[in-house]
Amino acid sequence: MIGIVVVSHSAQLAAGLKALANQLGSPARLLLAAGVDDPDHPIGTDAIAVMSAIEEADDGSGVLVLMDLGSALLSAETALELLSPELSARVRLCPAPLVEGTLAAVVAAGSGLTLDEVAAEALGALGPKQAMLPASAAQAATETAPVADDGWLRCEVVVDNPHGLHVRPAARLVAALKPFAAELRLQKGDKEANPRSLTRLAMLNVRQGDRLTLLARGEDANAALACFQQLAFDRFGD
């Protein structure tokens, strides 16, 4: 499973981010390399700490590193030079926004995605916020839902969660649908998103009372739809 490392100038900031990520229920490993060991001047980053966090986060699958400010990138780059060439080759430094990118990466890694796929999820994590703001240029980030053709089974639910599909229930939906082999498409009105992607799912901006339709096609399509229906009945675990 891909490991995640957060490099931050502030230990408090990183600890808060980890506490937030822990709410997602992902099995992904999230390690912190934040602040420096100086009580009088605790703000900063340490390349040795970054190196140690990467080594601890790696299980042979790879590590995604997210950073907050410019010198955090310098520390991360130095850490790569200190690592063995074999480990360094499977580490990716990611310019994604720290909070949104970390949460998306943790969910993606916990779903068993590859390093490239986890990095892509992190990089796309700013899209939902951009799409929700007025006059945003990112309105096209969700796809227009086509009419379902033959072979697709469907299940429609009404979202009962008071706060809609915010990040925690959305992450549970992604994790629940991940094991199924069926091809899946999630629709809200005329918009469609990949229900196995936290960032794409967030683009639908699902609120209480919205109708969602899951389309499934494949050998375990019925099981996937039953899982989706039960999850909605349970308010997506929220």
How are the secondary structure elements laid out?
Blueprint: E1 3-8, H1 11-22, E2 30-34, H2 47-57, E3 63-67, H3 70-82, H4 85-88, E4 91-94, H5 98-110, H6 115-123, H7 127-132, E5 143-144, E6 153-158, H8 167-177, E7 183-188, E8 191-193, H9 198-202, E9 211-217, H10 221-233
Helix pairs in contact: 2-3, 5-6
| Largest sheet, spatial ordering of strands | 5-8-7-9-6
How many β strands by DSSP? 9
What is the CATH H-level superfamily of the largest domain? Phosphotransferase system, mannose-type IIA component
Please state the CA-atom Rg, rounded to the nearest Å: 19 Å
Alpha-beta content class: alpha/beta
Characterise the protein shown here.
The protein is α/β, with parallel strands linked by helices. Helices cover 41% and strands 18% of the residues. It is built from ten helices and nine strands. The strands form two sheets. A five-stranded antiparallel sheet has the order 5-8-7-9-6, covered by helices on one side. A four-stranded parallel sheet has the order 2-1-3-4, sandwiched between helices. A hairpin with a 2-residue loop joins β7 and β8.
